[in-house]
Amino acid sequence: MKTTPLQTIWAPRMLSVLRIVAALIFFEHGTQKLLGFPVSDFHPEMFSMPWIAGVLELIGGALLIIGLFTRPVAFVLSGLMAVAYWTAHAPQSPFPALNGGDAAILYCFVFLYFVFSGPGPWSVDATRR
Prior knowledge:
The protein has 6 helices and no strands. The chain has helices spanning 5-35, 49-66, 70-89, 96-99, 102-117, 124-128. Pfam families: DoxX.
C-alpha cells in the first residue's frame, strides 16, 4: 500500500493524539482513587495494591499526557495493567467481556506500543531531542 503525503504528515501526530487521550483517561483512574474525583465510593487504603496502582496511574498518566519519559513510563504502566488483569480480572472469568478486564488489556498493549513507538512529535520528549 502506497503512503500518501497526508498519512506521512498525520501518522506521527495521531500517535501523539493517541498517547494524550489514552493517558487522560488513565489519569482519571488515579484521580478517582487518590483524589476522589470523579466521586467514587472506593477509597483504597494507603500503601495497598489499589493505592499503589492509583499513584502510578496519577503520576504515570500525567507524564504520558505531556510525553515526558514516555518509553520507561509506558513500560511500567504496561506492566501495571498486566498485573491488574491477571490479579483482579482473570480470576473472575477467563473471558474479558465477562471479567471487566477489557480496559486493562487494551491499556497494557497501547502502553506497550508506546514503549516501541515513542511519544510522537507533540511531546516534551520530542522537544528535548
